[in-house]
Design brief:
Length: about 260
């Protein structure tokens, strides 16, 4: 087993399950701290700020600081900044996305006319007008970005529409495929590694969902660790051709 210099760690299903902490996960993070190995929590959730994500982890008894969180909203803001830091952006989303764009000094417009980018994240106050404005901008040439393509959002009520389901309206209406910033795409992983300051050959992606976490790592060309504490079971894994570098039943097995 390789000694990795950095870890990218998924949240729901890896660190906690809904409202319950995964005790082995908390101990795993504490081991990384003791060994002075840097890590980032990497999440597709674009609705929360890094501090809000960190606070939720701390509430579970899992060590977390704002600077240790990297969201798909931050990946989107970083991408836009790299492309055109003076861009005008029409945004659909919640506090986490607005915060990420503001942190990069990106100009957010409320009328989509003249937008250079349309960026769409999960928005529980979505309206027809917001979708209409986004469609008009994309048809006028704005680059179309989504924070993640998750079609279903697990909640206490069951599976609810996710960002991929909401943004499919824009995709279908404009016949334009968006650039996806979230897992399983490589871009969120590449930006997280850049922030961590560690090359992909020295880092590992840890998660419970083969189709998002593990595929993101595979797409970025880095090693992966699948933990069977959430979505992907051992039985599921047996059916997939491209396997993670490692798989464990619990993070307590990872030394």
């Amino acid at each position: 087993m390789k000694n990795y210099k950095g870890y990218l760690i998924d949240l729901d299903g890896t660190m906690y399950k809904g409202t319950e902490v995964i005790e082995e996960a908390a101990a795993f993070v504490k081991r990384l701290i003791k060994l002075e190995i840097p890590y980032l929590y990497v999440t597709n959730n674009s609705t929360k700020t890094p501090e809000q994500v960190a606070q939720k982890l701390r509430d579970f008894g899992i060590p977390a600081k704002k600077k240790e969180v990297f969201t798909s909203a931050m990946a989107a803001a970083g991408y836009i900044y790299e492309q055109n830091k003076d861009a005008s952006v029409y945004m659909i989303g919640e506090e986490g996305l607005r915060y990420a764009l503001h942190e990069k000094g990106i100009h957010i417009i409320t009328d989509s006319e003249g937008a250079d980018f349309v960026v769409a994240g999960m928005d529980q106050q979505i309206t027809y007008e917001k979708l209409a404005q986004a469609c008009l901008a994309v048809r006028s040439g704005a680059k179309y970005i989504i924070t993640n393509g998750d079609t279903a959002l697990p909640t206490e009520r069951g599976l609810l529409p996710g960002n991929g389901a909401l943004t499919s309206v824009i995709t279908v209406s404009t016949q334009t495929t968006p650039l996806n910033m979230g897992k399983p795409e490589a871009i969120i992983v590449e930006q997280a590694l850049k922030l961590l300051g560690i090359g992909k050959e020295d880092a590992i992606m840890v998660g419970d969902n083969y189709h998002t976490d593990i595929m993101a790592g595979l797409n970025a060309g880095m090693d992966t660790l699948l933990v069977h504490s959430g979505v992907t079971t051992l039985e599921h894994l047996a059916t997939y051709e491209n396997k993670p570098t490692y798989s464990v039943n619990s993070l307590s097995e990872w030394e």
